[in-house]
Design goal:
61% of the residues lie in helices and 0% in strands. By secondary structure, it is mainly α. It has six helices and no strands. It has helices spanning 2-9, 14-24, 31-42, 48-62, 78-90, 97-106. The chain has one domain. Keywords: Membrane, Transmembrane, Transmembrane helix.
């Protein structure tokens, strides 16, 4: 499990994440959650283990080759959404209200009630 997580963290970087966002153009329904994860990674109060898990989650989403390839309509993003949901559950205690507020500033109509 940890080796797989470390594999996906190699694909995470803030620049790669921002390029990914520009390519998806907000088409992902889990984009607010993905942004909250990004802000949690940036927070210096987030423990290293939690950051590692969150980086692995974003790395998995960024990588186009995964369990269900992203180019498949609808189904291609289901596994990515599941990874994001699991990462949020793991890091729930570290997603601060200010992370959600940053998401709301970027995506004013985002529902951040998770």
């Amino acid at each position: 499990m940890w080796k797989l997580l470390l594999f996906f963290t190699r694909f995470y970087s803030p620049g790669r994440f921002l390029r990914f966002l520009s390519k998806t153009k907000g088409k992902l329904h889990f984009l607010p959650k993905l942004l909250a994860i990004f802000y949690c990674i940036q927070d210096k109060d987030t423990p290293k283990l939690v950051r590692l898990v969150l980086m692995g989650a974003i790395g998995y989403v960024i990588l186009p080759i995964d369990v269900v390839p992203d180019f498949l309509p609808v189904a291609g993003w289901v596994d990515d959404a599941a990874v994001v949901a699991a990462a949020l559950k793991f890091a729930a205690a570290y997603i601060k209200p200010e992370h959600k507020e940053k998401v709301r500033r970027i995506l004013p109509f985002a529902h951040c009630d998770w």
